[in-house]
């Protein structure tokens, strides 16, 4: 169920907005006289927010949902406010030029408030190697294992069952949820959020044919590079980032990876690039800054993608892309019988073209 | 290796069928006079079952495999039995109108028997928060962590290394295999089976562009919704179900998800819908009841699929589907050279159509 | 960051080559008079190796990178050496007919040296069931759980948080990284490398429609087969190999699976077959020897692939393949607008062919 603060812990609307103001976003309450002391227990959508929650309008298409909205207050732009019929609403209004960003910041506030209530410190069951360095103010959860030479920065928190391998390092104010695994020699910057089940620094997939053994046998190429991740990265549940073969796999600042993504060895991801779930990036591919890869996009190895390249979901990228823009390669879905008929012709396409050319010649 | 009971723990065929009868399925042993006291140690296919195992015939195509079958007994329909040549077989026969369902129930019986032998109770290394509520008869495995306000229902069993986050709840008679993670505010109904490495309630992938920072920078939208799952769900290994942004991600009753599936935030899955492995469902998509998504199908976000929609494996769904039926979008596989020739023409398809139209005009 | 030995632990070049010679590969140092006592702390690429590292030239296209290479020594073939301008290089040269394989072996040496420094033995927090058999020289990491009847071979090492289920067995000299899960009745051969988050023996996805319940309801087919894996397998992070329904899922000798792969129940994988990341193989499919499946390839269930079949990345295989060769089925990527135009025609392909046939008739 959605997270709601207990009433006695909830801020008033004005306290909440004062917090938001410290983050730097302008916002101005109007029409909130009925709710001066009302405590705000959480956030909700226009359709679902209750009388102790704040909502927001960022998508103009949802303007109709303002009717009947039961929220304590709604964040909206001046333009949206002026379009309201006076007296038509029971909620207060908070004017903000960027309602969606405001909502993002308020949601952060509520989530951080929840986390403040969690236990801190080093749990007695955590196993910390003698040469590991844990900064003051770091929290290490139950059954964590921090190996020799590892370093954990100030304010960084590890959930239960995390493993930080030999000589790996986490910066400041990182948040590792339950059972995140860092192999050895993995470096993570500040303010990273790493979700449950993610694995950093597993061996890249490297084998050489070994003609000295049985036909087809593989010799392992031990992966002795590392992983280096910048600041402000977020990595989703069960995502894996492999270690480099000889050098590092590199994840830039502000990179956001969703769940179940696979980043191969030696890959480099530019700053602020975001990937939705189930994406795979094969080894040694270099991705520019501010790219987006939609869900289940697949990149071959040894490619170079420039900055500001956007790949549609489910598309396979098999060659370099230097021009910014959106790229797609998805078979259009159809009713199965129709698909069968078209797919059958697809397998004869080259022949079809030859037949067309023959007709054109004889025209 | 397949699970076989020790001979001294194995039931006789009649004891086993009596158990099955209590489940409610009709079944009638015939031709079993040779095996009245034979102990049944497990189940096997027609081709592999040994003389202490029971097999079944549900697919008429496999009728030939009855010849040479070494099983103690074979479950089959009356029709299949009548087609047998008298005296042609050494196995006993159990008549049942639904042999496949009968097999499913017997397999459950054997698996539950195995589980009855496992240790129960709360392992001394489990860490249970003071405000967590563990019902009588629940089992908590080694190194589990159950956080504040969590609730574990009667008869529910947690394998080693499970984490149940703050205020999360598991119903009765659930089975969590080793290292399942529930974040905070995740609710699971009765009789759920959750496999190893599955993660429930990780943050949905939500970011707003933050123009106050470096170009391309993202502000996190903290995910403050929850996850609500119904009764009788089964979730495969390393599958992830993200928490909602503001409201809940909802998994209906009887939903079956295979391994390595990704369910985005705010998704709603209708009752009895089943998804094979490697499926991805992007955020806010709503899926009806009794749908099936075959392996590696991918659904874009914010879609609505009605009831009884069936998506073929490897297909990408990018728009709403309201009509029941089967839908497909897969590039047909071909020998690589042939694929190259056809794919080359595919990229000129619009031009090809124009040329065809020109010919038609000049006809 | 890449792994480098501390200088006092690093071997001289001649010591290192002597080690390599014991592995059986011929190699001959020349031009190394300047570096007789230089200690080699690690390996690097031609572009990045520093003066305490060894590099190699295996791809002739990289010959230009020899200029300016700062490595202590470079492994190359005689042919490459003869193409060098005398006196043009500061690095030593090691002649070897198979530089890539030599590099693989040296990388193994460095990685094994690193691992020799890790703690061994049974950690006091490991929970070992009374009937489990741990061979001498096995290492069990912190918080591991080894259940009743499990067997761990000599020299096998388990990282933190591994679980070995009832009656499962690991051969000799296996390496399990942190939190690998084996369910019950899973058998693994010698020298396996299993990466973090991998799961072996979770239930296959098997359900029978249950007409005795609500419309669409499923009855679970309990999965009572096992998993059997051969020698020299390597399995990537978060990969899952399900247990068989009645018989075993089988992984052959020398099979290499990358990260996030899903192997369904009853699948059989032939010796030395390799699969790149994100591949899915549905239930009961049989794959031959020495096959390769590139990233995100998807195989339907109940197929048979012969030996030496190679599937391109992102391709869906939906029917049997008996002829060795390379097979592909990928929608070619294009700029989004161009894709839209071609995809629109694709959905009318059958109709297009009819129109072409009409023209041909009227010719």
UniProtKB/TrEMBL annotation, chains A, B, C:
Residues 38-109 form the UDP-3-O-[3-hydroxymyristoyl] glucosamine N-acyltransferase non-repeat region domain. The keyword Protein transport does not apply. Its EC number is 2.3.1.191. It comes from the Bacteria. It holds the Pfam family Hexapep. It catalyses: a UDP-3-O-[(3R)-3-hydroxyacyl]-alpha-D-glucosamine + a (3R)-hydroxyacyl-[ACP] = a UDP-2-N,3-O-bis[(3R)-3-hydroxyacyl]-alpha-D-glucosamine + holo-[ACP] + H(+). GO terms for biological process: lipid A biosynthetic process. One of its GO terms (molecular function) is UDP-3-O-[(3R)-3-hydroxyacyl]-glucosamine N-acyltransferase activity. NCBIfam families: lipid_A_lpxD, PRK00892.1. Homotrimer. Belongs to the transferase hexapeptide repeat family. LpxD subfamily. This is UDP-3-O-acylglucosamine N-acyltransferase. The gene is lpxD.
